[in-house]
């Protein structure tokens, strides 16, 4: 998660780790909901790719 | 109908309204590929949550498990010896302590993780003391323990934390980190390891460790119903013994503790080391400190009654006495 850009990392941390709703997270970060959802989506996609790479590394 | 990833993520996060949810439920039933994509989003969410709650998944002693199976869940919980305090004023908080924080605290006690607190300013800040916080914006988790410490420390320095500065409620430690790194606040109060993360990764500077400027060394507590103690005295003793053992572990071998913190949380060694160096492992229950905290919470409008004069009746030193071999006076009790 530390490899994500700061803005994506914070969106992921607040929603997926802290369990905040999108509305709460957008409020904390003071950004519109649309910005929050797009940062969250990009962060998630990057994270999923990273974890998939790790899994491949484990198998290798 | 095709659904983009953002919509499916929102579905996995429970963010869609009933109509949208029903549409996707129906679509999933027809389309295994769509079901798989949703499952992947749910799995990532569960993995992220799980990554930070693995400490709660440690093996549970057999006696703990047995008690949970046969006793605790089968009965309606007793009211217990708990004082309820209605809000005193309109300024009083919404929910001051969230369930997750209590759970974290309970886990901390069992595993010997000790918390401590800091008042920080960003790397480029000119603020060097409490006095210079007048007129500034301070990021807090409202009415968390570090917020109560901060309010009390301000008072000791002649500053009204409700009038002379603006406390910005950032809701969670991650929110406080975000507030500091995005320069929305001029300072913040925060607990470990978030304080050390801000110092090491973002160059934040410490104005106070908050303990020294407020109540002195503070400690967590283990809260149970009187009913629980009556029914499960051995189990209660086991929990206290485990806390004592974990605290001894931290005290004697900081290196091992740092390695364990890295293993469970993914912190860097530097963050884990700085965080533990800011902690003072202690088993004491210093009653004078608890009385001061009670009065400070009353002064801040969090409780409608100062319970400093009766709080000792709600603290049971017997288990700690047995586990440590010390008297309650040696553990911090004073009449």
Task: Describe what you observe in this structure.
- The complex is a heterodimer of chains A (60) and B (335).
- Chain A has 60 residues and is mainly alpha-helical.
- Chain A has three helices and no strands.
- Chain A has one domain (6-53): Winged helix-like DNA-binding domain superfamily/Winged helix DNA-binding domain (Arc Repressor Mutant, subunit A).
- In chain A, 78% of the residues lie in helices and 0% in strands.
- The radius of gyration of chain B is 23 Å and the shape is globular.
- In chain B, strands 3-2-4-1-5 form a five-stranded mixed sheet, with helices on both faces.
- The chains are: A mainly alpha (60), B alpha/beta (335).
Q: Which protein chains make the most extensive interface, counting residues with beta carbons within 8 Å of the other chain's beta carbons?
A: A-B, 29 and 28 residues
The gyration radius over C-alpha positions of chain A equals 13 Å
CATH superfamily of chain A: Winged helix-like DNA-binding domain superfamily/Winged helix DNA-binding domain
Strand content of chain A: under 5%
Beta-strand content of chain B? 5-15%
Number of strands of chain B: 5
Question: Which architecture of chain A does the CATH hierarchy give at level 2?
Answer: Orthogonal Bundle
First-last Cα distance of chain A: 22 Å
Major sheet attributes of chain A: none
Task: Fill in the CATH topology of chain A.
Answer: Arc Repressor Mutant, subunit A
Helix content of chain A: over 70%
Overall morphology of chain B:
globular
As laid out across the biggest beta sheet of chain B, the strand order is 3-2-4-1-5
Oligomeric state: heterodimer
Overall pLDDT level of chain B: 78
Distance N terminus to C terminus of chain B? 72 Å
Count up the helices of chain B: 14
Q: What CATH architecture label of the largest domain in chain B applies?
A: 3-Layer(aba) Sandwich
Low-confidence stretches of chain A: none
Topology pattern of chain B, helix = H, strand = E: HHHHHEEHEHEHEHHHHHH
